[in-house]
Design goal:
Blueprint: H1 9-23, E1 32-47, E2 54-57, H2 66-78, E3 83-87, E4 108-110, E5 116-118, H3 121-131, E6 135-141, H4 181-199, H5 201-204, E7 208-211, H6 225-242, E8 247-253, H7 258-270, E9 285-291, E10 295-297, E11 305-307, H8 310-325, E12 335-341, H9 359-379, E13 383-388, E14 406-407, E15 410-411, H10 413-421, E16 427-433, H11 439-444, E17 451-458, E18 463-470, E19 479-487, E20 494-502, H12 509-515, H13 524-534, E21 539-545, E22 551-557, E23 562-567
Parallel strand pairs: 1-19, 2-3, 2-13, 3-6, 6-7, 7-8, 8-9, 9-12, 12-13
Antiparallel strand pairs: 1-16, 4-5, 10-11, 14-15, 16-17, 17-18, 18-23, 19-22, 20-21, 20-23
Helix pairs in contact: 4-6, 8-9, 9-10, 12-13
Length: 568
């Protein structure tokens, strides 16, 4: 984004007259296009929950490593003790060595007589890493320890998947139902009991407990739906036996869950609980997943590009909300979108995933979260969390193209959008943009329009205005010339303004690394430069002149840029 500049009245008046002719020109030929944004600081539209404060990853053991701990520090600093982390593989059998889409803790084995042996050393290390950095567990109970797996004899327990392999090759003995449900419940009971003893009852009461991952698909679940309901019921019974007031839920299905989700919702409301024999299963929150679907357009050698598919993600969100809202007993139940991302596999490479290192990921995040908030309001559901399935991959090549928040300890631009979210206030304000693509249009199909959107909030001391410039096509394009009109600013004659931004040239270590020549192994001086380049610095702007509670501000926003204005 160009540096914010106050423009002349003549320019502000002239820009609208250019709007119609400019539409006929190719995007690359335009220097800028006008956008009118209006914010009314005196008019609130309701509370804005901090739903963004949830993160997660397949690989749990990275949390105990150097770069994982550094990134957890950064996540915890966003909103201390209110950030949550979800991880797969926490009960897998193994020595704790991390790998792509794998992890292990050896929490459960059996002796020669078939008696359980519990070992919490590695799970403690993982949870300690969270809590010491202001992050709390969204604790996934799974997957199945080898000694409890009902997999057919001869089935390899651990998968041999690696980046580039077909996704379905992640299956193995770890994704089968238990062969002994009583031992499964006891394992969950003992783990919960241990966590209470180690971390304290009050702390564990703040956690989320859910069972498994995407049980509606063959990659993560080899049983029937009924076998999953049974596995879920016994696990929840184990948690509740140790901590009756624990916050439990699920089922973290892929997408909105289809018929599987319908059956699960019916079971937890009116089915017979497999573990207790009572009607229904305790459900304090419900979870489903929503993913986009980017594609690669053209030929890479001839300048092809990534085209994002936000409409796919938003459709999944809407369908999930509709399913839950349609069950009267569950309509007000808190919802966590347990994985919410531009596409489905953080560890998978490919041309269609080439958006991840740069500002397409950060602008997509800003534009998609705004629509998810809007969808929750439309369907009147109780949205509590939107979980970004991205963390870091330890000791991998720099900017390797995985879906992550940092590379080798250096934050990517997308993390700065979450830093902006952390500065938003609790009350949402009335805000409109002449170039914000309507929600229904974003859901319908790929949009090739420039989506220049706005969200605004306030607290007792300040107004925050978040602006983004997004387009589904990962191409260069004209800047948005924004005329921002603010009303309801009170009687003060001036207001202090601070700007934060992330774009191709600002708060962006990836651009700096490219300018270095993309060194495969940056030295210590280059590392310091990359670290400095990743930081989003506040910029003090000239004070706003306020007359009768009104003020105006003009700024330019690059394509794929995101900016936050704090007006005190």
């Amino acid at each position: 984004m160009r540096k914010l500049a106050l423009t002349t009245t003549l320019l502000a008046l002239a820009l609208p007259s250019l709007a119609l002719p400019s539409l006929a020109l190719p995007a690359m030929a335009q220097e800028s296009f006008p956008v009118t944004v209006r914010v009314d600081a005196s008019r609130t539209t309701g509370p804005l929950k901090p739903v963004w404060r949830f993160f997660g990853a397949d690989e749990p053991n990275y949390a105990t490593m150097k770069d994982g701990q550094k990134l957890l520090d950064h996540l915890g600093a966003l909103k201390p003790q209110q950030v949550y982390f979800r991880a797969h593989n926490l009960l897998n059998t193994g020595d704790g060595t991390p790998a792509f889409k794998w992890g292990s803790t050896n929490a459960y084995t059996e002796d020669k007589d078939g008696k359980p042996v519990y070992n919490w050393m590695i799970t403690d290390m993982i949870i300690d890493s969270y809590l010491q950095r202001g992050v709390r567990p969204y604790l996934q109970i799974g997957f199945m320890p080898e000694a409890l797996s009902s997999a057919p004899e001869g089935t390899p327990y651990r998968h041999a998947w690696r980046p580039g392999f077909r996704y379905e090759l992640i299956e193995g003995g770890w994704n089968y139902p238990p062969k002994d449900y009583a031992k499964w419940e006891e394992l969950v009971y003992q783990w919960t009991k241990h966590n209470i003893e180690r971390y304290g009852r009050d702390e564990v009461l703040t956690w989320y407990f859910e069972v498994w991952n995407e049980p509606n698909g063959p990659s993560y679940w080899k049983g029937t739906p009924e076998e999953f309901y049974k596995t879920h019921d016994y696990a929840i019974a184990g948690v509740k036996r140790a901590l009756p007031e624990a916050r439990v839920g699920g089922p973290d299905v892929a997408g909105s869950g289809g018929a599987f989700m319908d059956g699960f919702l019916k079971h937890v409301v009116s089915g017979t609980n497999y573990a207790t024999g009572q009607t229904g299963t305790p459900t304090d929150f419900l979870a489903f997943h929503a993913k986009g679907q980017p594609t690669f357009i053209g030929d890479a050698k001839e300048g092809g590009h990534v085209r994002m598919g936000m409409h796919s993600q938003l459709k999944a969100v809407e369908n999930g909300f509709k399913k839950i809202a349609a069950v009267p007993e569950l309509k007000n139940t808190p919802i966590v979108i347990g994985e919410s991302d531009p596409e489905g596999c953080a560890a998978c490479p490919g041309k269609a995933n080439g958006y991840r290192n740069g500002t397409m990921y950060s602008s997509y995040t800003a534009a998609s979260f705004a629509r998810i908030w809007e969808l929750s309001e439309r369907h009147q559901v109780n949205l509590e969390g939107v979980l970004t399935w991205a963390f870091t991959f330890e000791d991998q090549p720099w900017f390797a193209g995985y879906r992550q928040l940092a590379t080798n300890g250096i934050d990517l631009p997308v993390l700065n959008v979450f830093r902006m979210y952390a500065k938003l206030g609790p009350e949402q304000l009335s805000a409109t943009s002449s170039a914000q693509v309507p929600l229904d249009e974003m859901i319908a199909s790929v949009t090739q329009k420039n989506d220049v959107g706005v969200m605004a909030t306030r607290d007792a001391q300040r107004v925050a205005v978040l602006l983004w410039h997004y387009n589904d096509d990962d191409l260069k394009g004209p800047d948005a010339q924004i005329a921002l009109s603010l009303n309801g600013l009170g009687k003060a004659a001036s207001r202090k303004v601070t700007q934060y931004r992330v774009d191709a040239n600002t708060a962006n270590a990836y651009t700096t690394w490219q300018k270095m020549g993309a060194p495969p192994s940056p030295d210590q001086d280059q590392y310091k430069q990359l670290e400095a380049a990743s930081v989003m610095h506040p910029q003090a702007l000239p004070p706003l002149t306020v007359a009768k509670g009104q003020a105006t501000l003009n700024l330019s926003l690059m394509r794929q840029g995101v900016t936050l204005l704090i007006i005190e």
